[in-house]
Amino acid sequence: MAGSSRLDAKIPSGPLEKKWSQYRSTVPLVNPANKRRIEIIVIGTGLAGASAAASLAEMGYKVKAFCFQDSPRRAHSIAAQGGINAAKNYQNDGDSVYRLFYDTIKGGDYRAREANVHRLAEVSGNIIDQCVAQGVPFAREYGGLLSNRSFGGTQVQRTFYAAGQTGQQLLLGAYSALERQIGMGTITMYNRHEMMEVVIIDGKCRGIIARNLITGELERHFGHAVLIASGGYGNVFYLSTNAMGSNVTAAWKAHKKGAFFGNPCFTQIHPTCIPVSGDHQSKLTLMSESLRNDGRIWVPKKKDDNRAPGDIPEDERDYYLERRYPAFGNLVPRDIASRAAKERCDAGYGVGTSKLAVYLDYAAAIDRYGHAEANKNNVHNPSKEDIVKWGKAVVKEKYGNLFDMYKQITGEDPYEVPMRIYPAVHYTMGGLWVDYNLMTTVPGLYALGEANFSDHGANRLGASALMQGLADGYFVIPYTIGAYLSNEIRTPAIPTTHEAFVEAEKSVADRINTLLNVKGSTSPEMFHRRLGKIMWDKCGMARNRQGLESAIQEIRALRREFWNDVRVMGEAKEFNPELDKASRVADFLELGELMCIDALNREESCGGHFREEHQTEEGEALRDDEHFTFVSAWEYIKESDWGLHKEELVYENIKIAQRSYK
Amino acid sequence: MNLTLKVWRQKNSQSEGYFETHQLTGISPDMSFLEMFDVLNEKLVEENKEPVAFDHDCREGICGMCSMYINGRPHGPLEGVTTCQLHMRSFSDGDTIVVEPWRATAFPVIKDLVVERSSFDRIIAAGGFVSVNTGNAQDANNIPIPKDDADDAFAAAACIGCGACVAACKNASAMLFVSAKVSQLALLPQGQAERTIRAEKMVAQMDEEGFGSCTNTGACSAECPKEISLENIARLNREYLGAKLSSKSV
Ligand SMILES: Cc1cc2nc3c(=O)[nH]c(=O)nc-3n(C[C@H](O)[C@H](O)[C@H](O)COP(=O)(O)OP(=O)(O)OC[C@H]3O[C@@H](n4cnc5c(N)ncnc54)[C@H](O)[C@@H]3O)c2cc1C
Ligand code: SF4
Ligand code: FES
What we know:
- The structure holds two protein chains of two kinds.
- Chain A has helices at residues 16-24, 32-35, 47-59, 97-107, 114-134, 166-184, 249-256, 320-324, 334-346, 363-376, 384-410, 465-485, 499-518, 524-539, 545-565, 577-601, 625-628, and strands at 39-43, 62-66, 84-85, 159-160, 187-190, 193-201, 204-212, 218-222, 225-228, 261-262, 267-273, 296-300, 317-318, 358-361, 419-428, 431-432, 445-447, 630-638, 641-648.
- By secondary structure, chain A is α+β, with helices and mostly antiparallel strands.
- Chain A folds into three domains: 16-266 and 429-485, 3-Layer(bba) Sandwich (FAD/NAD(P)-binding domain), CATH 3.50.50; 270-424, Flavocytochrome C3, Chain A, domain 1 (Alpha-Beta Complex), CATH 3.90.700.10; 497-628, Methane Monooxygenase Hydroxylase, Chain G, domain 1 (Up-down Bundle).
- In chain A, the strands form five sheets. Chain A has a five-stranded parallel beta sheet, sandwiched between helices.
- In chain A, helix 1 (16-24) crosses helix 5 (114-134), helix 3 (47-59) packs parallel to helix 12 and helix 4 crosses helix 5.
- In chain A, 60% of the residues are buried.
- Chain B is of the alpha+beta class.
- Chain B has two domains: 3-111, Beta-grasp domain (Ubiquitin-like (UB roll), Roll), CATH 3.10.20.30; 118-246, Fumarate Reductase Iron-sulfur Protein, Chain B, domain 2 (Orthogonal Bundle), CATH 1.10.1060.
- A five-stranded mixed beta sheet of chain B has the order 2-1-5-3-4. In chain B, strands 6-7 form a two-stranded antiparallel sheet.
- In chain B, helix 3 (147-157) runs antiparallel to helix 5 (175-186).
- Chain B is elongated, with a radius of gyration of 20 Å.
- The mean pLDDT of chain B is 95.
- The chains are: A alpha+beta, B alpha+beta.
- The interface between A and B is large, with 78 and 80 residues.
């Protein structure tokens, strides 16, 4: 493998379309009797973790699953709104496995691995079948068949959905499969547990140290393999659309124990979120990308226009996405839509009191749907009121919960006035580096779902994270884990009295003690906010050398201050959310530095990574394929010191081109 | 806004709880209810006091984690919203707000406003699923489902498992929660094979967990943030009756 001797992506040989099916039928198997003796630890019960745990247990492995919430059903996947992609071609609009593969590689700005993405597209259809079989109530047409909609970066309708609650319904499906196995005794569930460390014995991952969040006790757990499905690290920015508890801790501990971190700087800023309203803000709320199916985005043509949106006539509005990208219009990929919004606001055309917002307008859609309903009902001269009434009803059916959510937060009614939206941190394409088997650089340690770096390159397309999480858990890991475990059948369970467990537990206990004994003056929350501000200002939607260099210094200083001045109330051996928070913030303070280092190193713009020094005359991202067609995989050496390994990306099936959505 | 907050404090499941009073000043009406708690906790930390423990995660009404009993109502005064979706504009300057945890035998308090709701998971584990292993599914469009059935199933499936229904019920019954899952699967062709046994097992587990019985007062549905309908309980009663009549164990 080019790049680094320690990076072998283990991509099977053979033609792209055959790689997965051939590999799948040749991967070594573990026989049923041996499976019963093999224990697998799964960290996380989101789509990736729950689907993996359930599937592996069904196959006969002994599984232990962990999550920090009070129930596995509450993983952050529950919040996903818009939908899940699959190349079913139910709409007969020319979709295919190849097209989904192609869209994903292009959407990722040519920084993803061909073989992984093709496999993802191949299994996408099975996911929908599986979920429907579980009783997931996807949206349907009157004929009883499944309904689809479009998402950004595609020209087909391949997104399956359940109103604006797709993640909830998919996760409840996976959760029911998980609970079924728990009921059968094949999975032991550890809720309100936080993984604090991985245990490595003779170079292989053999277990974890977890903290029981109710009692504060540290626990040792052995596993022949450990799967990290702990989600993304968007909360390093403090404000993001992620749930409050989303964190990098599990992935970060794995990283510090030898798992390389892939493309840490690739973060996704989602274009349509409810803007920040004040200093008290604790999180940001997404308005699903599905809204761009029907909503039109605009700003006034005049700078600092303070008129109410309804008072701005049609010809004084700038539908800037439709203007700049006629082929894809409002459905350009997220990175492009976000930058375009920032560009307009920076240039002085923003709306609302903060001027950091653009309009997402449903008036045209309400009118269009209203007319369509009138036609359906054979009403030839509908009144304006009827059109609006019918139009609103259709919009309500499609997006009702999102509109309600907007109203609760802002106090404004989006059926009457256009929504105000602004980009916000949403998703992290980067994550633990994994090979084709989803194994990290530590043998026996795997990463699934948003926690790994695979599949989305430098920008993820909408509705593809749910697809990837479930692909990893239902259809990939159950096969690929055999490659490793078939060699582990002779390994007996290692007693947790082994010195590696003792040492790992001690290091966790020491760190907790240190945190509690700083007894400084500033809450973990305040440090988190300050870190977030540095990250957003200097490693956010646009980045440059000077900003990144200073961010690295600022983060180091902040980290020193943290360990000298943090105030963590309460004790170690009790239910203590402040301690949980402090420990997570401490990890974010290390990750933030690596993200800036990675962003500094990548002297190009691609996908969500926009280096101001590298742009075209029209302000589009300018890639440098000659020098940067690789995955950055960072090896942790010691504090503030990382080694870079490169996995060269080889494109055998797709011709690299400048990404154009014009 | 200035507010008086009376909050339940309880060190752990064994200890006695009590109300603690706090004065908050300068609260913005745009803040969410939980952001108001963030302000309180920040203030407590500054004063070297232990912050109030409360459950929350998504803060957008979908994870079901937040669970505050506000002025005698689960999730507070508004209909169809969770605690995290409540904003301070729903209160007035000078208000006194009383905040307690869910109260039910099957939901013991862990600390302050945090309760243990694993009993809900165990009810699902008892039967709230379709028994289909990964990889055995037919093509999704081979099972056409009338749109109305799919929509009804979805409406029932929207339950977030928060437990407000239990907290609202004078008997602490979990019928609304259980009936929502039973209904979802009973409405879909995929759920037919296990329809009888599912209702039976889930109800048995519900009883075992110590939830009270349902006397049809409807407080659960009135306070449910997802407006899960009482029709589900009626459906569960029919399913359960059917289950009992055909059950081999009777
Ligand atoms: C608001 C929102 C809307 C979205 N909408 C869509 C959409 O419409 N379509 C789409 O494709 N994608 C969407 N996404 C992205 C998608 O939801 C996520 O990428 C995906 O759900 C992640 O799933 P996961 O299983 O990898 O992790 P998660 O669902 O985040 O689960 C992480 C799990 O790990 C556990 N965990 C974490 N750390 C620890 C630890 N230290 N110890 C123990 N357990 C731990 C947690 O308890 C949890 O169970 C959306 C994201 C957001 C924020
Ligand atoms: S039925 Fe309603 S109140 Fe009860 S758990 Fe479900 S969402 Fe919460
Ligand atoms: S915090 Fe998730 S529903 Fe309130």
